[in-house]
Amino acid sequence: MTGRRVDVGGAWIDRSRPIGFTFEGRELTGFEGDTLASALLANGVDVVCRSPILGRPRGIVSAGVEESSAFVQLSEPWFEPIVAVTMVNLVDGLVATGRPGVGVLPIDPLPTKPTVHRHAHVEFLVVGSGEGWHPTVGEAVQRGDRVLLVEREPRFAAASPDGVTVLTNATALGLYDDGYAVVDERGPERDTLWHVRAGRVILATGAHERPIAFADDDRPGVMLAGAVARYIRDFGVLPGQRAVIFTTNDSTREVAQTLTDAGAEIPFVADVRLGWAVAGTEGETHVEVVHLVGPQGERRAVEADLVAVSGGCNPAAQLFRAIGGGLRYDEPLATYVPDESGPDWLEVVGAAAGIGLPPCAAYWYTPAEDLSTHFVDLQRDQTVQDVLDAVGRGLRSVEHVKRATYIGTAIDQGRTSGVLTAEIVNAALGWELGAQGPTNARPPYVPVPFSVLAGMDRGPTLLDPKRTTPIHAAHVERGAVFENVGQWLRPRYFPEFEEDMESAVARECLALRTAAGVLDASTLGKIEVVGPDAAVFLDRMYTNRMSNLAVGSIRYGFMLGLDGMVFDDGVAMRLADDRYLVTTTTGGAAAVLDRFEEWLQTEWPELRVFCTSVTEQWAVVAVGGPGARDIVASLGTDVDLAAEALPWMTWRAGTVAGVPCRVCRVSFHGELSYELHVSSWHGRHVWDAVVAAGAVPYGTEAMHVLRAEKGYVIVGQETDGTVTPDDLGMGWIVNPAKGDFVGKRSLVRTDPLRMDRKQLVALLPHDPAALVVEGAQLVGSADLPKPPVPMLGHVTSSYRSTILGRTFALAMLKDGRAMHGGTVWAASNGATIACEVASAVVYDAEDRRRDG
Amino acid sequence: MLLVRCPWCGTRDEIEFRYGGQAGLTYPVDPEELSDEEWADYLFMRDNPKGPFRERWFHTAGCRRWFNAIRDTATHRFVATYRLDEEPPT
Amino acid sequence: MTADVRARSPLADRVAELATIGGELVPFLAQVDLRVDPAYAGLAPYPLPLEPDTAVDDGRRAALWLGPDEWLILGPPGGGAEIVGELEGAFASIDRSVVDVSANRVAIELNGPGRFDLLAHLCPLDLDPRVWTARRCAQTLLGRAQVILQERTDATGILVRPSFTDYLVDLLLAVHGAVGGVGA
Asked: Fewer CB within 10 A of the terminal residue: chain A, N end or C end?
């Protein structure tokens, strides 16, 4: 006979509310309040799954998180790849099948329960509803402290105390620095992952019973004694009709009473303190006979369908250990209890601290000739023999035995196997009890799905915020194809009439070079630098001199790292004697502002200058091309746009399209260009006006081609943190007459002065239609020799130039400037493309076009 | 997730801050005077003690101030945080 | 202030969605960033808070502490130039930086007693009324967006960069949708 529902007990179930569920295709019934485990036992199910390696039939061993045997996959009403049956609260329509070993994920993604994350700040966090925290919490509530209690089970052990917030079905997954706890609250509709910051944490997590190993101790019907009592008391389920009790301590007296009260018989109690032990079990798929051995070696066999085992109690100290707390062996209790270590904000109370646990004989397994079915870790199919074999091979540390046998690495995290294994190893080495304790514990306390950890941080909009400019809606309306530039979403190109990217980019480039184009450049970083020492400060941060920039003028500059490598570029506009607007690359804005503050606060606090971010205060509409002046003029403006009045690299304030505007003569493509800086509130208005006036919108792809044709570098494309200004052929940007600036000293270290450094060049493929691959390595011959192949450099950008009617690339090539006119080969995908090495400026080298 | 005590804003989660490495490294008065070895020492060489370490931290998502700290590199715990113009506590 | 027909406020097209979570857009709120040595704070035409993470709000001007030498001054929509003028005047002989940043952040007001529960899902700060009182403000995070929060007794003000507004509203809606009821 196996398990069945009985009339006694059942404190947790509601017998008036039946629940239907399916197990292995069989439709069964349980009650509200059942776990899947109690419902299976009530239905007489003994075999839940097969063991992962040996395929042996396995049943339910425990009533809680320490379950090491009975695992299922759930498919309704939600999917869970593998979970212990004791950890599933029964719900209507649950569908479960036995799952040995490892869970499997479905090919197609399945919907998951939504999860939200929530922060909570409390003075006290109590984990678990075991004994021992009442006085402390009582005082705290009196003081008005916030107290949160989290309990893994659906019910709280006692009446909810006043003034305390209680969460049930809430598992503390881990404790971290400074009282930070992560708690997974599982609900029927959604989960909540709590991030709790607690002043003090009290662990009242109780203790877990551990088994004793004997032959065929994994047969369904062998269970932890405390679990047997719990199934009767809380779920009204009698796991067996005739029970043999195998014990090392007095806790089983109460178990025996509970069994008898429920109508079970107890044909034998094997108490190791009296010399008796269970030697093994017999039965087809379930215990039918229990073999016993006595103090003089006498043998006895008893008919039984249940073995209730109590090897002792281990304090549930995993959360304590994972944050650095240690254990010490307690001889009377024959177990490990928390020692005095651990953080000062953490206290362990009750059974988790070893208080109130029964004194216990130290007994780990029934001795026998054949130890090959004395299972120690059921989930890993590892036996006492496996442990002894590991020691026999020379392993001494339990941590090594763990890695060799995998004991303790499964879902139950060694709750029932850890102490057993450690003491078997100690004994095998001739070491004393407690010489080494169970292997370390790590969070999470129980398995947690990634979807819970992700919470709302998932999906196209919430996982990684995509920043957009005030003109974004216009780009969407226009059908732009977007790309990610750092955190920003920028139009890559604007396809018309189902153009592909190549055609769109060709059209956009041609429009810019022959008529007029417009680019949304609002993402550029912008910083206002204000104060009497603004000029001095910028001189120290940039390679060029900014202090002699006239008000109304603009200068392009580089910022280097202290190591002399190019860090960022941008332009500085002088607004007044003591005021500059500095631009940075889109991706570098935050880093540049942070570095400004770092130098000002930590090195030069005496400088009288302040920095303020204005990146999103201003929208930038960049109008370029031979027709740019006419376009801007047609918007209506009081700014004199003539080349003499507004020369290249100057700016004027005025009104454009009816709104205040700074008109800047800056060009990133070599054509006549007016960057219109307006309040971002006016960005959309000005963009619409410029487009209506006939400028062709172009995106980042065309922008890349146009600037490359002029040999203008993009920090992060041609540079990678190892490139100096001279490498780029831009030694002119370092002002030699200036005082010290960040990176100056590094430019004269031996490495930046090496002769064979990679230098910026253009590559013109011999075949003007051949497109070199970005990132391709440059080699010295058409045929690749055997590795190692000498690598001369790499391709940083590669494009088709509409205006030149041919392909070209930019590259960093060893001693590149001396190689002009020579040939190198770009190698990728097993082929090489021959290229002529040329100066990096392939178009309008004399800058004749920039004034229109 | 450490709790970091910004000297202005009080205690905040570690995620609001950026670690700034070793404290007390003053930019040399005249870098031109240093040999390449001395300059490389300033650029690249850092102490790496097991135990209390003088560090700089930046409250990037808060008040955006740099401040100093003494923190134990073995236990991760902060011993003290103090403003740039304050003396380290004894 | 005469309506500026060429001006568009971010989030103007998501006002209805904001309302479902008890949120309101405050378009074109005037915002000016002031940086000056705190020793001279007394020269300001209105009180500047010296205690970190606090604000002084008289209904017409609010001064938010952003750093030991930095304040954000808030005023009625369109009033940026006026605030710049009065601060430049007050600190005329002192080293300072006064920058109109009115378009640099968008202002959202969250109303209703349920707003703290909603914010607790996104913000690592302790927003319990015992510490988050009506004079409090703070630079912090809502999800992955850097924001400035200002508590105003019956509403909480959120200042966020325009480029993050869609993300923030999407996040507020998603959390609200999952947990329900704000403003009840």
From this structure: N
